[in-house]
Amino acid sequence: xxxxxxxxxxxxxxxxxxxxxxxxxxxxxxxxxxxxxxxxxxxxxxxxxxxxxxxxxxxxxxxxxxxxxxxxxxxxxxxxxxxxxxxxxxxxxxxxxxxxxxxxxxxxxxxxxxxxxxxxxxxxxxxxxxxxxxxxxxxxxxxxxxxxxxxxxxxxxxxxxxxxxxxxxxxxxxxxxxxxxxxxxxxxxxxxxxxxxxxxxxxxxxxxxxxxxxxxxxxxxxxxxxxxxxxxxxxxxxxxxxxxxxxxxxxxxxxxxxxxxxxxxxxxxxxxxxxxxxxxxxxxxxxxxxxxxxxxxxxxxxxxxxxxxxxxxxxxxxxxxxxxxxxxxxxxxxxxxxxxxxxxxxxxxxxxxxxxxxxxxxxxxxxxxxxxxxxxxxxxxxxxxxxxxxxxxxxxxxxxxxxxxxxxxxxxxxxxxxxxxxxxxxxxxxxxxxxxxxxxxxxxxxx
Length: 447
Description:
By secondary structure, this protein is an all-alpha fold. Helix content is 75%, strand content 0%. Helix 4 crosses helix 5, helix 5 packs antiparallel against helix 15 (321-337) and helix 16 crosses helix 18. The radius of gyration is 22 Å and the shape is globular. It starts with 8 loop residues before the first helix and ends with a helix.
């Protein structure tokens, strides 16, 4: 029996970079301009922390023998309740992040079409986009995947383009004026943007899911994950800092379409319009895919007993329409609750909340790595090295939590604690499923 040709380490590295270069970067130049170019300190901290996280996730992927990704990792140390909590908080993070992606698309669209929307108008437009992309998924995943594979280039090309060629328009004076406009201390500047920069790296752990499709995974997966994270970090740092030297800080901080504004300065307004249009399509394509993906995440968790059975319902075509509608209702409420006079403030609120909930699986996975290594029989010297990296990754995760702000920590904490209440509803179902599996495995015992 022949096996299909597997990816090389270079191909997996490129796939990892592309997976991270999504819509998370689209509004970042504006958010970082609110701090100043000194926010490069946050990038350096986040790049280091993300590398530590990526390395540890690669180790988890190589050593774990449990399915379910981060949930399976957490189960080694925290049992089934840890697996559930990871699934719950990861699903909540995706739910929140999709609303932020919708707001990003609306921000670029308002600039593209020169439309001024009230705060309520922005909220309604975001909700309309969420509904549109949800309904578009009712036909199944086939067309969604094809659209996403094309529209993602609407982000990748401008981001890589400005990182590479933007230096020809870079002004040291403009950059110097943007360095520290608010007179922040080094500590304040380094910590103020850690959460927002981590937003661009979320999903780094997904690269480990391709370990079965790469040659020599024990060696090549860690190389690809670390190489991809370093590549993404270089591109992120380059593009946000070169834009800070092209567009004046006040103008950049007030923009809802920073990449379009940068290309308008570099070339002409119509080129900026084209870039804005590309990024609107990229965000819509990304949202289209993530709306389907989040329903599948909830469905798979319901299939294994971790979520309520209603999330496992599908139509004849296998599409989880009812879960999509439930999640859409939650996103609609979230979009209404976070309405702000400033579009970027609403985006900031949602991103911080998404980061807080997504860091819970990160922290649990890092804590479980020591147990995973023990079960896998990793030699003590290597285990100590990996554990030290996991402690660095955990320390960075706590810094990102702190950087998210009191409001995000409070809301994220409430959302996480609420998950334990929901666990009470599903724990009895998991016991019943265990009993049914046991009876199936030992039919004689059931007689």
